[in-house]
Design a protein that fits this description.
Chain lengths: 89, 95
């Protein structure tokens, strides 16, 4: 998993079956020091509790769908936790 | 798998259920000269590793779920599976 900063929200009424009720957020990926690293992306919110401004960690690829209630859905990035504290030396 | 260095820790209250009771480490990938690379993972610790340790990191979901005991649908991919004592490259090996 990698760190990210939630920078926005996304709404899609019409989406693939299984994604009903899933919240999508725009996330800027971060390096381990908290600096922006790469292009922003859209991630499903596996915690259902994240919002703009929050520091989160995300999982990519097949595992992303496993963070959601329906685990065979077309999603390649998902938020798996909201960070309280990162201590990197 | 890759060789990494434990650079830090992550604490989270709100997280997926599979991580409850797990220690999450920030592990930076090392090249074979031991120099830090840009890649890193937030990985589940299975070997009581600590900050500064050189470790072996598994980055594949099915194996990760097996050893952490979260089959079949645990949202887990990167796991620290060993603390590296030493490694050597064959003489003349180019990296």
């Amino acid at each position: 998993m990698q760190l990210g900063r939630v920078i926005g929200t996304l709404v899609a009424t019409q989406k693939y079956e299984g994604l009903e009720g899933v919240k999508f957020l725009v996330v800027q990926p971060l390096d381990k020091r908290g600096e922006s690293d790469g292009e922003p992306l859209v991630a499903a919110d596996g915690t259902a509790q994240a919002g703009p401004g929050e520091l989160v960690f995300m999982i990519y690829s097949r595992e992303a769908a496993l963070a959601l209630p329906e685990d065979f859905v077309p999603v390649d990035a998902a938020i798996t936790g909201i960070v309280d504290e990162v201590d990197v030396r | 798998m890759y060789i990494g260095r434990v650079d830090g820790t992550v604490v989270a209250t709100i997280k997926n259920d599979v991580f409850h009771g797990c220690k999450l480490l920030v592990v930076g990938k090392l090249d074979l000269d031991g120099k830090p690379m840009a890649k890193y993972d937030i990985a589940v610790d299975m070997v009581q590793a600590g900050v500064g340790d050189r470790v072996l990191v598994l980055d594949e979901g099915n194996s990760a779920r097996q050893i952490v005991g979260r089959e079949p649908d645990g949202v887990i991919r990167a796991v620290v599976v060993g603390i590296v004592d030493d490694f050597t490259l064959a003489e003349g090996a180019s990296v």
